[in-house]
Specification:
- By secondary structure, the protein is mainly alpha-helical.
- It has helices spanning 13-38, 45-52, 56-62, 66-87, 100-113, 126-138, 142-169, 177-192, 205-208.
Length: 222
């Protein structure tokens, strides 16, 4: 067989699939960065295309339309957060914007603010993953772990979204930020170890002081 008559050997399917996977990963990573930095509604497919260095048509081919991309991104960042929680149970998951927790918080908040319901992936659910670590780490029952995990995630969301405001409004600018963040992690652990329903509320100093009538006793029935 001469060189000119040789048949071209097609690339193996695995190689083609690897290129598809690499392109898809590049798109997901680029969209995640943009969604976390700008907000979901402020990012177009063209923005993602430019950031990832791929043609817009490839995004539609490998992932779908914009709504499909949003779903895929939230599922992916949720999966990575679940993995981080499993790898580092009962630890803080980071506060930096480029950490997986930072990305998840910013994307989740952006979707919620825009009125979109956050999709719940039964397999990659950060709240469920957190609850599992509470059961294993503190021995609380499943329902207590579910309630406390939801509360811990809610606190983590709120602090990370409003951190600058909370520090300023609380007059905490003189407290090192790392110290405040570490205290948030400690309070989350204490909450996670607390059974549900909660113990009785502590008695306030105002409740312990009964008004005393002139010449009378402190007992309101006396």
């Amino acid at each position: 067989m001469t060189a000119g008559s040789r048949r071209r050997v097609p690339r193996p399917a695995t190689g083609a699939q690897e290129r598809v996977d690499e392109t898809r990963r590049a798109v997901i990573d680029a969209a995640t960065r943009l969604f976390a930095a700008r907000g979901v509604d402020a990012v177009s497919l063209r923005d993602v295309s430019a950031e990832a260095g791929v043609h817009t048509e490839l995004i539609r081919r490998y992932i779908g339309h914009r709504r499909d991309l949003v779903r895929v991104i939230f599922e992916d960042v949720s999966r990575r957060l679940v993995e981080a929680i499993a790898q580092h149970p009962l630890e803080g998951q980071g506060f930096d914007a480029d950490s997986v927790m930072g990305q998840w918080v910013r994307i989740a908040a952006s979707l919620a603010i825009s009125g979109q319901r956050l999709p719940v992936d039964a397999e990659h659910n950060p709240v469920t993953a957190m609850a599992a670590t509470l059961v294993e780490g503190y021995g609380v029952d499943e329902r207590s772990a579910q309630v406390r995990a939801a509360q811990i995630v809610a606190t983590a969301l709120g602090w990370r979204v409003f951190e600058h405001y909370l520090v300023a409004a609380g007059g905490l600018s003189d407290v090192p930020l790392e110290q405040l963040r570490e205290e948030l992690v400690h309070s989350g652990r204490r909450l996670g170890a607390t059974p549900w329903p909660s113990p009785p509320d502590p008695t306030s100093t105002r409740d312990s002081l009964q008004p005393t009538e002139p010449g009378g006793t402190s007992d309101p029935c006396g």
